[in-house]
Prior knowledge:
The structure holds 2 protein chains of 2 kinds. By secondary structure, chain A is an alpha+beta fold. Among the domains of chain A are: 2-120, no CATH class; 233-405 and 751-757 and 766-785, no CATH class; 432-459 and 653-734; 460-651, Jelly Rolls. The longest helix of chain A has 40 residues, at 416-455. The radius of gyration of chain A is 42 Å and the shape is elongated. Chain B is of the alpha/beta class. In chain B, the strands form 4 sheets. In chain B, strands 1, 4, 5, 6, 7, 8, 11, 12 and 15 form a 9-stranded mixed sheet that branches. In chain B, helix 6 (239-259) runs antiparallel to helix 7 (264-286) and helix 9 (305-322) packs parallel to helix 10. At the A-B interface, helix 30, helix 31, helix 32, helix 34 and helix 35 of A face helix 1, helix 6 and helix 7 of B.
Amino acid sequence: MTRLFAIFLFNTVIAIAGVEEYLRDIKPVLKERCYACHGALKQKAGLRVDSAENLRKGSKRGDVLALGQAEAGELLVRLTAADAGERMPPEGVPLKLEEIKAIREWIAAGAPVPQSEIAEADPREHWSFQVPKCVPMPGNAGNPIDDLLEARLVKHRLKAQPPAERTILIRRLYLDLIGLPPTEKQLQDERRWESIVEELLASPYHGERWARHWMDVWRYSDWYGLGDEVRDSQKQLWRWRDWMVTSLNENKGYDQMVREMLAADEIAPEDLETVAATGFLARSYYKFNRTTWLDNTVEHTGKAFMGLTMNCAKCHDHKYDPIDHLDYYKFRAIFEPYQVRVDAMPGPLDLAKNGITRVYDGNLGAATYLHERGDESKVDKNRKISAAPPAFLASGWEPPKPVELPLEAWRPDMQKFVQQGFLSQKLAKVTEAEAQLEKLKLKKAAQKEKRAKSKSIKPVKGETILTDDFSKPRPDLWTVFGSDSRYQDDSLSITKSSFDTTYLRSKVNHPRDFELELKFKTTGGQKWKSTGIRFDVDKSGDNSHFVYTSVFGAKVHLAHTIKGKDKYTQAVAKRSIKLNQIYTLGLKVRDQLVNVTLDGEFLFAYTLPRRQPGAVQLLAYDAVADFHGVEIRRLPTQVFLERAGSGGKATVTVETINLAEAKLRLAKAEYAFGKARIDADNAVFRKEGNGSAETAGEKQIEAGLAKARVDLLDSKKTAEAEKKIKRLIADLQAEKFPDLEPLRFSQVSLINTPNKDALPSEGGYPRTSSGRRTALANWLTHRDHPLVARVAVNHIWLRHFGTPLVETVSDFGLRAPRPLHQDLLDYLAVEFIESGWDMKHLHRLILTSKAWQRSSSNLGADENTLAADPGNLHYWRMNVRRMEAQVVRDSLLHLAGTLDLAQGGPSVTPTPNARRRGLYFFHSRDGRSRFLATFDDADVFACYRRSESIVPQQALAMMNSQIAAASAKQIAALFEPEMSPEVFVRAAFSKILSRPPAQAELAESLAYLEVQPKREHFIHALINLNDFLMIR
Amino acid sequence: MTQDDPIAMSRRALLQSALGFGALAVNGIMAAETQNRPDGKPHFIPRAKRVIWLFMRGGVSHMESFDPKPALNEFAGKSISETPYKSVLDASKIRKLRIPIKGDANGHTRTKIFPMQTGFKRYGQSGIEISDWFPNIGSCADDIAFIRSMWTSDNNHGAQIQFHSGRHFLDPRVPTIGAWINYGLGSLSKNLPQFINIGPRFFDKKDAHYLGPAYEAVNLKIDPKNPLDYAKSSNGMTAAEQRRNLDLTNKLNRLAAKQYPLDPVIEARIKSYELAFRMQTAVPDALDFSQESSETKKLYGIDQNETKSFGQQLLAARRLSERGVRFIQIMHGDGAAGAWDNHSGLKNGHSKLSRQVDLPTAGLLKDLKRRGLLEDTIVVFATEFGRTPGSQGADGRDHHSFGFSVWMAGGGIKGGVTNGSTDELGYHAVQAPHYVTDVHATINHLMGIDPHKLEVPGHKRLEVDFGHVIEDIIA
């Protein structure tokens, strides 16, 4: 500002006292603090202070200066008011005393007006807000870019540098278009330049290279969250990335890409690959706050496509651009209805693994209101705000028309692949259940055969250690604990249900290897009704093992008691245990191996982790029980024991078979129900087939019955299942069928939904979409939109030349001065639009220009040119650029031959061993590649332009990282070891730098190899060269 | 340049100016080209040269640390509305809050008064009351300015971001105070980055944001074997081999510079490699405590299990500050929310955590003082918010953003003073309330920075970002 001011001063003849002070001390202050409300943009109270003349005109209430009067005028009164509510400016600190003094003195001097002072221009006349017009070509250099640039070079007597060396150019082209360095062979390509350009534009890698650029601009980010909770962005967002790659490779028009990102769900609702483009909007998802979510959408739609800082109007009118506070909320209203959901994709019906994140208009009824000072707790509900672009740009805007969506869009379950996928899933379950049943039947037969064999062997009995029929107390055998046991009816009764507080413990210990039979019946209890026996009981009674039957648990189970705490094992047999029925529980224990039988039937075998022979102890847990007898014998060595792991759950019983049969019936019933509901849906919505809701309802009940009949076999669920069966049968007879719910192959990520429209009801998602985003997309891509093509062209130019034509790539508003090369920018924008927004056409135009092919060196540059334009504003040479983070890594791996060039798919974890191209790396708030971050990888919040820093961490990464060290070694291995040092050095330079070494470089390299013959170390030094990291 | 070429400064001229100054930011040899970055000189004569920033993650209870509230004992168990101070709950007073997570289990009004869980004693000549959980910090009271009237507007742990950047969790991310200092001032070291972070972070692992990667904190680990990413060769090159490689790289880069004269990048690249090479030894050297006496280690509590970890972080901080690091950011408290987040078992939790930090922190102050470093080193002891005067559950306190305490000491700060106060219950900052950026403003002021001069085009800073200097604690 001071510099401009200096020029101004220089050009002005200063005659009148006070003018100099006005220009030096007052005007800059007014500009900084007051113009936003009292200038060309706005004239609050009718006052403009952007020229002395305007100040003298005063406000709508009259004079503000009070020239020649003793009392201060309104201007000074307001600037010096003590009351903050009265004082101007209303925001920020008051003007400084010396600033006010200067104003007072200027007024006292009669408020002199400088000659030819020009007030601010109307902001709507800002250069970038005018529709770009094709300019007349100044020359005939062949390429319009050169015509325009050379005209200016000639005008300023600047001399351009010659083209770069062919191999340097080829490397530049490869890195620019596909992001991978050329091979030796490609480097020697002698075809016409245009043919190489054409070939690379057609390469599938071109889409990957340029998708990463647009991922920056459109702020691609994978999801972030804790556990499964998504807090930021969305899962499956990679489909949007793949859409970018594909679209760029197909050369889809930029306008079409913008339309698809903003409204594919409205313009191509049946085409899921295209709907993936709405990832642009899904990315702004933010779990904690809907306003933050939409703020991001508004800000980045504005910046990415229009170069407008809409976000500056969130709390108040924009300070520079003609966007008022209300415009912000009108723009928000365009997005107010949209929500995010995950739908199924063809392939496995699994939303988590194979879903698509997409947007849809959910909150159709949601109103948009103005937030006072941007505070979402201060909502002005007096006024509903409708969707519209900022008023000053509204030309070409067509009011939104609601879009009727096809069935498949609002009922994603009605998509044919979902219906078919669903039925195949059901059918697979039937097949699975059939196979299971078959397997069990075979197994049972085998078990039966085995059992018959073992029974034919005559049992051998060992020495009896303890036997008791419980007909009378035997204090010689047992110690009695607790008070609730009694001998009656030839048995020992535990008379009160307790948690194992009344029991008998044997006075003798059983041997290490023993067999035991316990005869008992459970007669009652509260819940578990568990009866059994402990063994290996130590003196304290705190450690033992035990086997018990449980009526409620319907099982026989082995468990341990360790230091008084029960630990349950996996050794369990499902077995219904009836009350008042006498069972014989049998144990055979040898070393750590236990076999358990019930009524002679083998149940399971188990290996005890450790054991110490001890006493036995009768067990009644939560049960009332009678013990009829116990016998413990030594276990003879010839008795066969089943191996651990056999039996238990593996034992096939009649009950297991019954259950498997019931499950098969259930699978079949569910398949029938699935088919019936799809038939019903097709009949209702597609008028296909003869399905009906009644049939489907009947099948649903039958499936419910089949489920209840499975539950019936589970003693914990029996009672509930019986009730359910009764109810379902009654419903069936009364033909009372349930309403059909849509299949759930869709999930919503809703927050702050003011109405329920957005949720999938039985009717599915809303059948119409508001059409607001389509209206937005059409307006943006209207050929008369002054900003969209210019902004896109500027981004593309930046990524070819290293510097943009408009410095502030995301702000084309009033703070962006008219660019030096506006003619070029406008030419490219018009050409872009007229070519059908053809990006490859633009690339071709740029890459075949002389400007792009110039040498990037100052060597031999014209002295005057260097002095006049050292910053290369006129593109008299090429700019040197550093490879972006991804290109550094991809190039290293590509040179080493280890880059995995597979395309597309879910993002990969950025480990040092990952071999996919960098654009496929998981890239989110917390999940980023450390290596890429070191080289200025894109900021996930916003990255309209990468930084190009030079920091020691980059040097450390290239010197020490595994990827650099390993690549150096692998590259070195590609050269024949027999090569002479000189041949090797030449080949290495060519491979890594795409150029031969200069004589001095060769000499240095050979000297190095004399001392350090390890060639991988030499390669390591080469990949650390500035010339490797830079695109020359 | 002619009149239709109005771009103020050429890219190359800009780079040359950035490289021309002696005081270069070490980890930003060349930053984003588009920014007209500051020249590395303070805007006015500074009082302090560096900052050691200690941050207790999770929220330290002010009523059990630096702000005694006897009324809590008097009304223990009563509801706030039954006390004479019921007006603390007036809706008008709690309007400042912006709740990021609606319906979250935390961050509620807790009305049943919970008595102080520890006692307080007066310390030093100043007689400032400090809780019995911080006796060693108490012994340094005459060197410390306690600020008992902090407030913030986020009642959840996003307030950690807010304390560092001045912006609420729901606002866009902006640079933190450490990044601004790094951006604003040149380096004091030829061998080390000038902005370092040690310790666990969760909420925002970035500091520089729009200032660009060159101004990020460099993360160090207290591990002499692997203190810094990529600081050790992964292919077993010896130091001599590396030096030889570096010499070749430099020679070849210089030869390339002949083909590309006036390219500022090449020289910057060479410098960055030299610096990287020195960092490889300078960083482990800074973290090599074997050169410290056992008396010093004891001073930091490195000889005791409980204080060892934080003591090592603080001894590293002192060693780094001696070596010219500008801003050393030390985080204490593991876990997503931060260890100090004692929603239950406050007595147990806080007494343990305070034992971890109290002795080492006092050790740091004493060590800096005896070495003459405290005069130009600002030490900050902060946390994202306080804890509720009311109880949560049986024995915890919830998040509390309306009033809490931090302290500052050293370079240009008065010792033995308190500033501001909360009401009788410790609910609201009532006297001299300070928003979090007042701490930043005070640091900027003492470091000689006018933050208004550090604005980056395209990133408007708000008045609230700048804060107000806490004049009363300036010596």
